[in-house]
């Protein structure tokens, strides 16, 4: 059985970390404003209300391209970057972004938790993510575990999500209280960083991208899976794995359903469709 609380409370964010986040996110906002054909932001009030609730917030999204994080956080109001509680944490693969001492320092300052492929669901980053949620912080995860761009000639609506990794379900079973969980659908970022990339750090310009944030997953659906297990004493082993598997499948379906809605409306109305409260960051 894995320990429940192996880590000390998260310390206040350092000045250097704040400066790193402000600098990177501001650069991302400038790119989204001036380096794309359009940047459509939908459903941002859902996330802002969740962050104002003082509860932990877990966002989960599809993953079409490298660079989606940190680019997508350029849509956030600057005030959210000044509060430890409303600035996102995320997980990143050790073999991809923690490849040397400089990158490890940079991404750690950027609130990225180092994960190890093949390390299973009981590694330090998973425990830290659960602790952050219990502390009322925001954690964003790409549960597919790797980028999954639509192949040439295949529309996004025809391209299914990869199976979600169990780590996202494990984070929720480790949480003392269920956080608010919001699905996010990202579109067009595979045109910003197309695969294969001739130049790793040079994005393509004029892509039409969108960030669509869904309403929180109905708590009764999540609690229906987690509540009985917690009431029975939070048994590890097969019982926890069964709950983790069901929660992970539920979150995949929520992200898939949001994506189907977005892509259906995009095919019918064009990529810049919006509802009340939505906006194009370029305008």
Provide structural commentary.
The protein has ten helices and eight strands. It has helices spanning 15-34, 44-52, 68-71, 94-97, 101-109, 124-134, 167-174, 189-192, 219-231, 238-269; strands at residues 38-42, 57-61, 89-93, 112-115, 138-141, 180-187, 208-213, 279-280. It has an eight-stranded mixed sheet with strand order 4-3-5-2-6-7-1-8. Helix 9 (219-231) packs antiparallel against helix 10 (238-269). The longest helix has 32 residues, at 238-269. It is globular, with a radius of gyration of 18 Å. The termini are far apart.
Helix content: 40-55%
User: Which word captures the global form?
Assistant: globular
- Largest beta-sheet characterization: 8 strands, mixed
The number of distinct helices, counting runs of at least 4 residues, comes to 10
Compute the separation of the termini in Å. Answer: 53 Å
Order of helices and strands: HEHEHEHHEHEHEHEHHE
Tally of strands = 8
- Low-confidence parts, pLDDT < 50 over ≥5 residues? none
Largest sheet: spatial strand order:
4-3-5-2-6-7-1-8
Instruction: Compute the average pLDDT.
Output: 91
Taken as a percent bin, the fraction of beta residues is: 5-15%
Please give the radius of gyration in angstroms.
Answer: 18 Å
Computed structural class:
alpha/beta
